[in-house]
Amino acid sequence: MSAVANPTRAAREDTPRSPQAGAPVVRLHDVHKSFGALKVLDGVSLDVGPGEVAAIIGQSGSGKSTALRCINALETIQQGTIHVCGHAIHDPQLDRRALRRDVGIVFQSYNLFPHLTAEQNIMLAPTCVKGMTKAQARELAREVLSHVGLAEKAEHYPEQLSGGQQQRVAIARSLAMRPKLMLFDEVTSALDPQLTGEVLKVMENLAREGMTMILVTHEMAFARKVASKVVYMHRGRVWETGTGAMLDDPQTPELRAFIGNGL
Amino acid sequence: MTYQFDFAALLPYWPEFVHGLWLTLQLSAMATVLGFIVGTLCAIGRADGPPAVKWAVAAYVEVIRNTPLLVQIFLVYFGIATLGFRIGANTAAVAALVVNVGAYTCEIVRAGLESVHKAQLEAADCLGLSRVQTYWHVVLRPAVERVYPALTSQYVLLMLASSITSQISAEELTAVANRVQSDTFRSFETYIVVGLLYLLLSFVVRIAFWLVGLGVFVRRRKLGTAL
Amino acid sequence: MQSFGLAHVEFLAWAALWTVGLSAIAFVGGGLLGFAVALLRVSANPAARLAAIVYIQIVQGTPLLILLFLIYFGVAVIGFTGVPAILAAGAGLTIYASGFLAEIWRGCIQSVPKTQWEAAECLALTRWQRMTRVILPQALRIATPPTVGFLVQIVKNTSLASVVGFVELAQAGKLINNSIFEPFTIFVTVAVFYFALCFPLSTWSRSLERTLNVSRR
């Protein structure tokens, strides 16, 4: 065990960059989660307010991706409470479909549907879930595609697109549902450095437009620049929280070691 | 609509059913062992033989896989007789099943052989192993281990298909059933019982293959991982 | 005694049409039933899954010959007499095909990566929408080669329909043989007919599989 007995003590009082006016969009309280004997989340608490951009960092195995998946009810938790956009995630009666209308998620492996074109990938949910007509959905698809700079790729199938382009289509697909919250799960980890940039650019624009975002990432420079809140997770706990500036002045030896390795 | 089931009428025939079960097991076991040898040799010939052998094996596999077992059984049984040899129905049954399952085995084992990496062959070659030694020690075991589940399914199908040999009056479970039902006139009950016996046999065969696999594939037994 | 001639070949050709017809019935019937069983097999309801497993195990663990005998004597037992042979044979082969197609298709549905289910779920699609819009279109591509391959098994297995009194290719051969006893010539001819039906299907299945493997890389 480390010298810091209660890791959350290291959280700072810094005020985040964007104002945290309303009630939190996401609130995790004392969340515990195990896979069999393996404890992955060990009492995680976290608030993310409207318009905030929270970046979760940490070694692999620190529980950061699991925390993100719990927020979208892709994993069930054993203890604690999670509230997301007014939905009680820990409640067994949770209406998952209602939750997913409010929350968009982008995966590391894109997970585009290979049998559909970029445009069809985007149109699917608006027509199926929101009852849009094909014409409306197509217009929407063009709009979100140009938002991520891929208007001319509408007719392409995923395999005809580069990794970075596929990931931008995946972001557009989520945006088309007009989510109140966007989750990004290591979305650039599978990409070459030169393709990473184009995806981060899109995310940065989203952040600037006021989208509430939680991202699990290895991109320290991006976290420092764009995130209003940086969360360092270690051994299934929130070890240190702060603004991007936290990365320049880590309080715990673990974060110092982590940043040292990363740079 | 008021059919009275009468399974009791079949009770006196239980020794016959057991005997039929035993015959079917013997028939399938023989066809499985011989078919495996034939099929494996064919697969090696297909992969590594001279062009004439490759071509002959390909033709054999295609012909067998695209014609019904029933017709193959008729051809072996009646066809060999027209050539002047007299063979019994049971011998013809085994021969036809071997010819049939040999072709399927060949295809399955061939897929296994192809999965063995070229570098393995080079390594064996560089160690000075002969071609036969290479096949025996380096290629065959992992190849068969990889396709073992497919082989198991194929040999369960073979056991079930051996029922077709009853059509040339070979002695096995279905032939016994045909006799019992004509004796008792309880046809429906007879075939229900025999259907259940085959179901039982198919589980027995699966378990037998699992046990054989445990014995042969030592590495898998110890490590529990797939190759 | 008359010897094997053109008239016999013509008789066999007509019988081959019955083989094709019976195969079509079995494929359509078995496909519909098998699809339903495959959906049950991957459903969220454990009882439905168990029922599908039991059904598949029973059908795959019983010889088709016994299945046909059961149908033949079974329809008499429940009070129907004089059921046309084609219906009895069609029913037996339908059940047989459904058991195998269900298992083939289950494998195809489950080979679509779990992440595709997850992505569809995160877009708020219902379970039915996920299945019909995302999973099945992908499974269909994977399923085509083995399904065509299984069609060959169906065609070959229609040869067992003679036990319920249906005259198709193999039975026609037997009938000719009973009258002129030239088994070698007759059954080679019968085999050639079957080969002509099955070989194109086998070849097609293989080429579909190659295309699929190339596209997957």
TrEMBL record, chain A:
Its main location: membrane. Residues 1-24 are annotated as: Disordered. Keywords: Amino-acid transport, ATP-binding, Cell membrane, Membrane, Nucleotide-binding, Transport. It holds the Pfam family ABC_tran. CDD domains: ABC_HisP_GlnQ (cd03262). Transmembrane segments: none annotated. It comes from the Bacteria. It is a peripheral membrane protein. PROSITE patterns: ABC_TRANSPORTER_1, ABC_TRANSPORTER_2. GO terms for molecular function: ABC-type amino acid transporter activity; ATP binding; ATP hydrolysis activity. It is found in: Cell membrane. The keyword Transport applies. Residues 26-260 form the ABC transporter domain. GO terms for cellular component: plasma membrane. Belongs to the ABC transporter superfamily. This is Amino acid ABC transporter ATP-binding protein. It comes from Azospirillum griseum.
UniProtKB/TrEMBL annotation, chain B:
One of its GO terms (biological process) is amino acid transport. It holds the Pfam family BPD_transp_1. The chain crosses the membrane at residues 20-44, 69-89, 191-218. It comes from the Bacteria. The keyword Cell membrane applies. One of its GO terms (cellular component) is ATP-binding cassette (ABC) transporter complex. It is found in: Cell inner membrane; Cell membrane. The keyword Transmembrane applies. Residues 21-209 form the ABC transmembrane type-1 domain. It is a multi-pass membrane protein. One of its GO terms (molecular function) is transmembrane transporter activity. InterPro entries: AA_ABC_transptr_permease_3TM, ArtM/GltK/GlnP/TcyL/YhdX-like, MetI-like, MetI-like_sf. Keywords: Cell membrane, Membrane, Transmembrane, Transmembrane helix, Transport. Belongs to the binding-protein-dependent transport system permease family. HisMQ subfamily. This is Amino acid ABC transporter permease.
TrEMBL record, chain C:
This is Amino acid ABC transporter permease. It holds the Pfam family BPD_transp_1. Belongs to the binding-protein-dependent transport system permease family. HisMQ subfamily. InterPro entries: AA_ABC_transptr_permease_3TM, ArtM/GltK/GlnP/TcyL/YhdX-like, MetI-like, MetI-like_sf. The keyword Membrane applies. The chain crosses the membrane at residues 12-40, 52-80, 86-105, 184-204. One of its GO terms (molecular function) is transmembrane transporter activity. Residues 16-205 form the ABC transmembrane type-1 domain. It is a multi-pass membrane protein. PANTHER family: BLR6398 PROTEIN, MEMBRANE COMPONENT OF AMINO ACID ABC TRANSPORTER. Keywords: Cell membrane, Membrane, Transmembrane, Transmembrane helix, Transport. Its main location: membrane. The keyword Transmembrane applies. One of its GO terms (biological process) is amino acid transport. Gene3D superfamilies: MetI-like. It is found in: Cell inner membrane; Cell membrane.
